[in-house]
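To whoever is on call:

I kicked off a structure prediction for a single chain this morning and the downstream step that reads the tokens threw a length-mismatch warning. I double-checked the sequence; it's 525 residues and nothing unusual in it as far as I can see. Pasting both halves so you can look.
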Amino acid sequence: MHIGKTGRLFAVAAVAASLAGIPEASAEKVLRVIPHADLKNLDPIWTTAYISRNHGYMIYDTLFAMDENFVPQPQMVGEWSVSEDRLTWTFVLRDGLKWHDGKPVTAEDCVASLRRWGARDGMGQLLMSAVASLEAKDARTIVLKLSEPYGLVLESIGKISSNVPFMMPKRVAETDPFQQIQEYVGSGPFVFKKEEWVPGAKVVYERFRDYVPRSEPPSAAAGGKVARVDRVEWLYFPDQTTALNALLAGEVDIFEQPANDLMPLLESNPDVVVDIVNPIGNIGFLRFNHLHPPFDKAEIRRAVLMAIKQEDYMTAAVGNPKYWRTCYSVYPCGTPYENDVGSDILKVGDIEKAKAALQAAGYDGTPVVILHPTDIPLLSAFTQVTADKLRRMGMNVDVQAMDWATLTSRRAKREKPAEGGWNMFHTWWIGADVIDPTAIAFSGNPDKGWFGWPKDEELEKARAAFARAQSVEERKEWARKAQERLLAIAASGHIGQFFTPVAYRKSVTGLIRSPVFFLWNVDKQ
């Protein structure tokens, strides 16, 4: 029954395309992908949403990129050098870089792009605080001068995930960083076909025939970005069962993030491969709004942390223990800065103790508005676990249902919850995004930080010191101090580390092992 329904959906889409004057690309090699969420926000600098980041990687390129060992490698840059005092960094763009409109990529474009990214991203903000000047010396040469030595220059401009320092034309990059761009011209391996974009249903990309990939083999975000298909279609299915049947029927090629309860069906199908391509996994987050009651008080936030039991979240949302683990470090377990400083509060997991702490903190019955993304099963499960825990603690809970795309817009609102704002939402970060204190998720600056807007000067000092540290041991010490502050102020709730498999037809080859889902190098028979 579901397979027939899916077939009818594709037929309706084809008829609609014909009526709209869009030719069907039957002779082309088309890769059809079910993404993890609907794409509504197209500016990957304005938002940290992963679906927008993935869209960014399809059409934009970066100056540097992280390889599979998290070592930054040149991407758009051909040659680069740094002065002996490590204050002057010079980057020369490689040959053959063009925007999708045919114009050459210039150093001025890249300077404007770096400045816009640096105003929004946590790592970018820290880098820009040490920048004395950033200029285009000529059409292909970028010169970055620091006011003091900074330990993470290449790691910053080559960061792999949100916010990624994507390069855009100067006219686009000069858009206010806190306003969304309105033009989507990149220089990456695919071109965004805006005229075929149907929010809530379909996103289309075509191979950029003038793209010149690097000669190195692909390695995470680095190396040659070779588009091996003519066209990529993201087909969004709010219903997981319909999505499952589309994959099993061969109507789509890749299912980026199937729900865990579908895994037995997928793993038993001889035509489907189930694989974990993200080696670090993801970190579940419960995010408080620090601006409004009741979570403007650290004591109340800490009371909630005492109710968290990671096993409850992981069992409800992920299920199979082979796909999750408990982790009480704010940085992913198994990565260099993992530590246990201040983490005892994450191990309490006791409703009665949390209830007592809540009463001692003076909670007065203020409603807690929780944003509930019903179209992402994992986040929906997180939300329901938290809502139950808060009610058992004695909190007045208001769960408001919406899709993820709506949530990513609403979480940007600083208004009071009763005026369209919020108190709490759940998300996850890929491990690579929160691997050290420079992550925007760990910002303690409410003016420049991530949604939730905590304020803590001691935290900001630790993050800045980490970024300027010149030795690994010094960085580890500052990472511990940052974690201590994050847990002391209860900036977020950390609800476990999990691994999300991707499912794809056996006809698909070339998926890259990386924390981010890439579609270059992917082919289909």
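Update from on-call: the warning came from a stale cache, not from the record. Cleared it. Sanity check on the structure: Residues 133 and 485 are 32 Å apart (CA to CA).
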